[in-house]
Each structure stands twice: as C-alpha cells, then as structure tokens.
Design goal:
Elements (H helix, E strand, L loop, with lengths): L1 H14 L15 E6 L4 E3 L5 E8 L5 E2 L2 E4 L2 E2 L3 E6 L10 H5 L4 E3 L2 E2 L4 E7 L10 E10 L8 E3 L3 E6 L1
C-alpha cells in the first residue's frame, strides 16, 4: 500500500509540466512514446536499459532521428526518481550532446513506429538499492514553445 501510494505520487509529479514547458494533450500529440524494460530488477551498478517505442500519431511525416552518445539517444530527456523521495544524480544532457557518436536521420510516416534501446543508467545514477520510477520525454520540435510528449512511467528495482 505504501509503495503504491509512493508510485502514484511520483507518477503524478512526473506528469506535471516543468515550469515553462508545455505538455501536449494526448489528442494533439504528433507522436506517442511508450517505454518498457526487459529487466525490472537489477543489481546495484548494473546497466539499466529502456526500450523506447515512438509512434507517429499525426497525419504527416515526423522527424524520428536518433543522436546516440554512449548508448543513450540524447533526443530524449530521462526523468528518473527514486521511489520514496531519494534524489538521483543526473548527467547534463548538453554535456552528453558534445560526444555524439552516431546520428541516424529518420522520418516516420503517419501510423509508423520505431523502437530503440537507451541505457538510462548512463544518464542517471541508479546505484542505491530501491525502486526507481523512469519516464522519458521528447520535444515536439526544435521550438521549446511547441512542448514535449511524455511516455508512460515504469519502475525498476535496484538490489544490493
């Protein structure tokens, strides 16, 4: 019960927009993001991977390009929070952008989807045992005023 309440609170906080950031209503989003993981429990220090599925929900082609730096697509923002209030140290996304190793220019037609994996533990230190709530978001365009689309939230347990 206590963990369920904590997860609900984290999910609500994660869904809240960051000041100055617009989150589009699902009916107006040009794409959707769904995340999952093959391993919901990992040992402290192990890699944590998320599978990201980006689906074009619009009536026009969208940019679905990938920019990888150290096994992470820097086109996404990674929100990781320790369930129960612990803080998570995060690397600066802009610092990661300076070491981009691979760029794949890709467009999705209406209804098309693409999947990739990102090593979220490269961006966020998940070394303390406990439960971590993970959500990713992606800007709709290069214009910050256009807002972002957020994924669902998943939970990964880090064990000693």
């Amino acid at each position: 019960m206590k963990n369920s309440l904590a997860l609900a609170l984290i999910a609500a906080a994660a869904a809240a927009p960051i000041p100055g950031q617009t989150v589009m209503a699902p009916s107006h989003q040009p794409f959707s993001i769904a995340i999952s993981t093959a391993r919901t429990s990992v040992k402290a220090g192990a890699a944590v991977w998320v599978r990201i599925r980006l689906t074009n929900t619009s009536d026009h082609e969208i940019n679905a390009s990938v920019a990888r730096a150290r096994e992470v697509d820097v086109n996404y923002d990674y929100d990781v929070r320790q369930v129960g209030g612990g803080t998570v140290d995060k690397l600066d996304k802009h610092d990661m952008s300076k070491i981009i190793q691979t760029v794949v220019v890709r467009a999705l037609k209406p209804g098309e989807a693409t999947e990739e994996e990102s090593r979220v533990s490269r961006m966020c230190k998940m070394i303390e045992p406990g439960e971590y709530a993970i959500q990713v978001s992606r800007p709709i365009s290069d214009d910050p005023g256009d807002g972002v689309v957020k994924s669902n939230t998943i939970t990964v347990t880090v064990t000693p």
